[in-house]
Write a structure and sequence with these properties.
CATH superfamily of the largest domain: Acetylglutamate kinase-like
Bound molecules: adenosine-5'-diphosphate, aspartic acid, magnesium ion
Shape: globular
Number of helices: 16
Strand content: 15-25%
CATH topology of the largest domain: Carbamate kinase
CATH class of the largest domain: Alpha Beta
Radius of gyration: 24 Å
Number of strands: 16
Distance between the termini: 50 Å
Strand order of the largest sheet: 3-4-2-1-7-9-10-8
Number of domains: 2
């Protein structure tokens, strides 16, 4: 049996026919290298957002608004699927003015049937005006259902033995719609039944990320960005030799390259560091991705589908030693800080428990906590539930809350036991007002809360302080040198 590798392609890697062709050639290269790929794909870029917008419009009774969104999505999908057909690929420049010819009939028919069913749901929703999490999952699931089927067909036509598997047959979850919890044992059984037989025959299975279903067959989703999680669940379930996350950047970088253009690729990072970064807002990986891989010790690679030659980032159990204290800086925005102030609190037995019970009741995770003699400050990343949480907390003490905060989190195993790091961190951002500070119990992160509007500037200042002369064993310093050389030549 060949080496089983899960290859996950994110939204930008499948955003149009050109991107899907690129994806096909990456998969083809892996097959020629003797790898048996299992492919997990996201919805095409922005599709999930638009499906959510359609669902919200319908739930407000704006039936026409919702149907206008799906009409645009319908033509986008039809166009991409038609462009991918052998007939269209053969036309000069892949330029097919309209995709209504008989040669496209089969492609058109199944896409129309899917959108007809989706429109039916939206019409019903516009009539009842109530968007339940269950209906929302049903609506957003169309993004991955469509992309995976289109891509499986494209792979079949390109000699890659593409076969579509509906992820909902394999990714069995509980019924917490919007952020369902996967049921590992059932998933492993289903993968054995639906995926492995194809792989043993050398076929390239393509399945949608993000979506799943309950044991009873009700569609669920794993939370935004959840296709990474699907890839890790599949990798864990079939004991893959590696999980590859193909995205639109060269790997995990020292900061979000959109915020910090100087960011460098991190060559290797530990599971623990990557998990911490993902949890604290580095969108390049979904926070739940790492666990299934850690449990089975499967290496995860983050790679660039626009630059497949690049080595990317390797996430492994033990990172090599590194002379730079930090590996990367993550930022989580849109946070709210809640101050709970009680005059008599001071270590009162059960007081903190009572506070946390409120967050538990509202199923709201707390990102950061700090306590003083009379107050407890907590941060959360929800805005909708704040009024209810505040109402419950005000039964215990005085409550104040303030939104638009950002949590900056610096991650690196090498901060353990190093002196003077905090002074350097706070020296680099002395021009920025800090609201809360925490050094994580894991001892591999240092995080602090600031105003959202200061976040980008803080990241750039910290990056300049800590990544001016990084360890070439761990960071892709060569890329910076060649970029600098190119600028000088120009
Ligand atoms: P995909 O659609 O492939 O899942 P995402 O948009 O979810 O891609 O994640 C990739 C994006 O994550 C990058 O374009 C980048 O802007 C952002 N990002 C944030 N932090 C980092 C980081 N530390 N390293 C790399 N990318 C990051
Ligand atoms: N399509 C889903 C989203 O946009 C899942 C993913 O892309 O990972 O959140
Ligand atoms: Mg993502």
């Amino acid at each position: 049996m060949k080496k089983l590798v899960v290859m996950k392609f994110g939204g930008t890697s499948v955003e149009d026919a050109v991107a899907i062709n690129r994806t096909a050639s990456i998969v083809s290269t892996r097959r020629n290298q003797g790898v048996q790929p299992i492919v997990v794909v996201s919805a095409m870029a922005k599709v999930t957002d638009q499906l959510l917008a359609a669902a919200n419009a319908a739930s407000r009774g704006d039936r026409n608004g919702a149907l206008a969104i799906t009409a645009r999505l319908r033509s986008r999908h039809k166009e991409v699927a038609c462009r991918l057909t052998a007939q269209a690929a053969a036309k000069p420049g892949n330029d097919c003015a309209d995709f209504t010819g008989p040669e496209y009939a089969e492609t058109q028919t199944w896409i129309d049937a899917e959108f007809d069913a989706l429109d039916e749901i939206l019409r019903g929703l516009a009539a009842v005006n109530e968007l339940t999490p269950r209906i929302s999952d049903m609506i957003v699931s169309y993004g991955e259902r469509l992309s995976s089927r289109m891509i499986a067909e494209a792979f079949a036509q390109r000699g890659l033995d593409g076969v579509h598997v509906d992820a909902r047959h394999c990714i069995i979850t509980d019924a917490q719609h919007g952020k369902a919890i996967p049921q590992d044992a059932l998933i492993a059984e289903r993968l054995k039944e639906y995926v492995l037989p194809h792989a043993y025959q050398g076929k390239t299975v393509v399945m949608g990320g993000f979506i799943g279903s309950t044991e009873k067959g009700v569609t669920t989703t794993l939370g935004r960005g959840g296709s990474d999680f699907t890839a890790a669940l599949v990798g864990g379930g079939i004991h893959a030799e590696a999980i590859e996350i193909w995205t639109d950047v060269n790997g995990i970088m020292t900061a979000d390259p959109r915020v910090c253009p100087d960011a460098l690729r991190v060559k290797t990072i530990s599971f623990e560091e990557a998990a911490e970064l993902a949890y604290f807002g580095a969108k390049v990986l979904h926070p739940a991705t790492i666990l299934p891989a850690v449990q089975k010790n499967i290496p995860v690679l983050v790679l660039n589908s626009r630059n497949p030659e690049n080595e990317g980032t390797r996430i492994i159990s033990l990172a090599p030693s590194c002379r730079s204290p930090f590996k990367s800086i993550a930022v989580k925005k849109k946070l709210t800080i809640i101050d709970v102030v009680a005059s008599r609190m001071l270590m009162t037995h059960g007081y903190l428990r009572a506070i946390f019970e409120v967050f538990d009741k509202h199923k709201t995770p707390v990102d950061m906590v700090s306590t003083s003699e009379v107050s407890v400050s907590l941060t959360v990343d929800t805005t909708e539930k704040i009024p209810e949480i505040a109402a419950d907390l005000s039964k215990l003490a005085d409550v104040k809350y303030e939104g638009r905060k950002a949590l900056v989190c610096m991650v690196g195993e090498n901060i353990r036991g190093q002196n003077g790091i905090a002074a350097r961190v706070f020296g680099a951002i002395r021009h920025i007002n800090i609201r809360m500070i925490s050094q994580g119990a894991s001892e591999i992160n240092m995080s602090f809360m600031i105003e959202e509007e200061d976040a980008d500037e803080a990241v750039r200042s910290l990056h300049a302080e800590f990544f001016e002369d990084p360890d070439p064993e761990v960071f892709d310093v060569e890329a910076r040198k060649s970029a600098a050389a190119e600028t000088t030549v120009r």
